[in-house]
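Researcher: We plan to redesign the surface later, but first we want a full-length starting point. Tokens attached.
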């Protein structure tokens, strides 16, 4: 289990891929983002995207699943104060295999909660062709090894 002290600015992690299916795109769109270019192939062909595509929010959710099911990167995660930036660079189409790279861009101890540190990562999501489809910068609250738990008591 990685604690705050294990994160260093400049660290990079590779996040294994996940294929996006047409059925998954349709199910997500029906539930959360019912725009025509996510729901209907004919409407999608007539759109600026030219084909059925995943919602950008679907791509964000897929990245989160990839991060938290990556067996090589368990961390003492305590939550997140928020996402700083998301950029959808290219559409994600059925059959695309997404993978990601995470870069630690900032790490600091919390001034108000000494039992944790804050780690900012920039994620770059690419498809099977190496095309950048999304970037996201997000902060994570990570328990410090020195105190070890969210209650702030010494471990």
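Model: Full-length starting sequence:
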């Amino acid at each position: 289990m990685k604690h705050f002290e294990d994160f260093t600015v400049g660290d990079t992690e590779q996040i294994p891929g996940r294929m996006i299916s047409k059925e998954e795109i349709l199910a997500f769109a029906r539930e959360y983002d019912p725009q025509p270019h996510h729901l209907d192939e004919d409407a999608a062909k007539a759109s600026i995207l030219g084909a059925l595509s995943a919602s950008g929010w679907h791509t964000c959710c897929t990245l989160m699943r990839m991060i938290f099911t990556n067996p090589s990167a368990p961390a003492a995660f305590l939550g997140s104060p928020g996402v700083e930036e998301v950029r959808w660079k290219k559409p994600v189409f059925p059959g695309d295999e997404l993978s990601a790279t995470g870069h630690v861009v900032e790490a600091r101890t919390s001034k108000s909660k000494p039992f944790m540190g804050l780690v900012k990562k920039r994620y770059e999501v690419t498809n099977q062709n190496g095309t950048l489809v999304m970037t996201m910068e997000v902060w994570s609250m990570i328990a410090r090894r020195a105190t070890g738990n969210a209650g702030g008591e010494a471990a």
